[in-house]
Amino acid sequence: MRHRRRRFQCPPPADPRDSSLVFRLNRGFFLRQLGIFLVMDFLVMSLSTLGLTIFAENRCADVAAVVETHGLPEEETIPWMESGGYMVRPLDRQPEGLEMPAFFSWLPIREEVSQGRRSYEDLRYYVIELPNHGSPYSIHVDMSGMFRTLHWVVMALLLCQAFSLILNLFRNYRSIRLVLRPIQDLANTTTEKLHATTSSASQEASRELESLTDELGKINARHLDSRIDLPATQKELRSLAQAINAMLDRVNQAYSAQMRFVSDASHELRTPIAVIQGYASLLVRWGKSDPEALEESITAIRDEAKSMERLVAQLLFLARGDNDSQPVKKEPMDLIALADEVLREEQMIHPERILLQRWQGGDVVPVVADLGLMKQLMRILIDNSIKYSPEEGKVYLRVSESEGYARVTVQDEGMGIAPEAIPHIFERFYRTDRSRARTTGGTGLGLSIARWIVDRHGGWFEVVSRMEVGTRITFVLPLAKGQLPE
User: Fold this and answer.
1) 446 with 410: CB under 8 angstroms?
2) What pLDDT score does 459 carry?
3) Segment 82-103 mean pLDDT
4) Which pLDDT belongs to residue 139?
5) Gap between the Cα atoms of 140 and 120, Å rounded
6) Beta bridge partners of residue 369, listed in sequence order
7) Quick count: other Cβ atoms within 10 Å of Cβ 198?
8) Quick one: pLDDT band at residue 441, thresholds 50, 70, 90?
9) Which in 82, 114, 117, 141 has the greatest CB count within 10 A?
10) Which residue would you say has higher pLDDT here, 83 or 342?
11) Strands 137-142 and 125-130
């Protein structure tokens, strides 16, 4: 009997982690998040180094221009210069240091310091030594304050990223284990059934149970699309296989959605990086001699950095929402008062647009909700209507109540949404018109955040749209019972 039981047992793997589906999925999520953080860190450090270098070069060029006009300063003025963050010292030798490498030739180096040699002194001073027509001198710019600030900023960023990685590592592990627990339970049940097989009449059922166990063993992170296919000889086993296949369909769908989200996030981050690289190339060709190109490039790089910051903030919001770590502080509030406040703010931001209010019902529409999230929700819907409607088009904001529910509607006279696109508008990174994505400045995450907020408040959306006529989006929330606190 003992020998028969061992016949159906799988040998233990050499390293349990190598065959663990939980470990492989968790490792994949961890490495993808780590890759995104590394790209962000590299970009931040590159832009910081570039900015500090340009600042120090311009400061030295300003001092060199003064020296060229008024000559070298006297010894007693050195304390005054030190208090200003720089020093000028005459040299009794020829200038030493490094010339500006050819790799940085695209930087806008000013003529006053183009012949200088550069070095760092005690990792505190940025030093340029100039020949000055036979009277060499050096300019020392104190960078210690900026270095200290940058050091603490980088340390805070790395600590936050490390905390996020460790926190998500444990949360993903727990979530994956919870999702895959039914598979393990079924595998354990199958093993118990195999051990209980003792009579010759059940040999056929034992072989099918063994086949089921083998099929389960083949499923891993790379083969989530695998399914169990058993002959219809045992009704109970076939029902079990169908239940496992249905569960695997849901797991595969969730995993595919996660992979698609990570891929879309990477694509969205590549776009601003490509723009920054393009303008860096423009600086290489024209930046030193064309002030217009220099200004355009700096403005574009700054705008793309803001766009990346906004995208990362929205991604972090959705990530916290997926992990149930986004705080939702509900309190009694009046939707009419909040809508009036949001509308006034939007009118100040967009004075050229026509924004109209429509309050229906009583003077107060009470709900229990998070004030900040409700304001963010209304702004998302109004901003979308403004982006996708002509400048002369009107945008309406309505607040009403009916049958125990509060209704907030944003309606525009814009381009409209195709009927086949309406079911997808709340998906992450989905855009009905991708050709206008860059011009409108959207990330494709606004409505996903809006749906998350409404779901957390027990509500739902209603969308009505007609092409070339406009779109009406309404979110519905339960009314609060009782009166609002004074």
Assistant:
1) no
2) 94
3) 77
4) 86
5) 9
6) 331
7) 11
8) low
9) 141
10) 342
11) antiparallel
Q: Which structure tokens are listed for 130?
A: 């100039």
Taking only the tens place, the pLDDT of each residue in 353-408 is 888 988 876 688 899 999 989 998 999 899 889 988 888 889 999 999 988 899 99
Going by pLDDT thresholds of 50, 70 and 90, the confidence category of residue 475 is: very high
Task: Tell the burial category of 382 from Cβ atoms under 10 Å away from its Cβ (0-12, 13-18, 19+).
Answer: buried
The average pLDDT across 88-104 equals 77
Q: What is the pTM of this model?
A: 0.46
Cβ contacts of residue 297 below 8 Å, gap of 6+? 279, 280, 282, 283, 287
By CB atoms closer than 10 A (0-12, 13-18, 19+), residue 32 is: middle
- Relative to beta strand 470-478, strand 405-412 is antiparallel
Separation of alpha carbons 32 and 349, rounded Å: 37
pLDDT digits (tens, 9 = 90+) for 275-324: 777 777 777 776 667 777 777 778 877 777 777 777 777 777 777 776 67
Place of tokens 């910081």: 48
311 within 8 A of 268, measured Cβ to Cβ: yes
Chain Cα centroid distance, residue 227: 34
Name the segment(s) of the chain with CATH classification 3.30.565.10: 330-478
- For residue 214, the model assigns a pLDDT of 62
Tokens of 230: 């058993």
Dihedral in degrees, nearest 10, Cα atoms 380, 471, 457, 366: 100
CB 84, CB 142: distance < 8 Å:
no
Distance of CA 357 to CAs 4, 290, 343, 390, Å?
A: 78, 48, 8, 19
Q: Which residues contact 208 (CB under 8 A, 6 or more apart)?
A: 230, 231, 233, 234, 237
pLDDT at 11 over 60: no
Quote the pLDDT of residue 462.
94
The domain covering 330-478 belongs, at the CATH homologous superfamily level, to Histidine kinase-like ATPase, C-terminal domain (3.30.565.10)
Tokens of 280: 């860096």
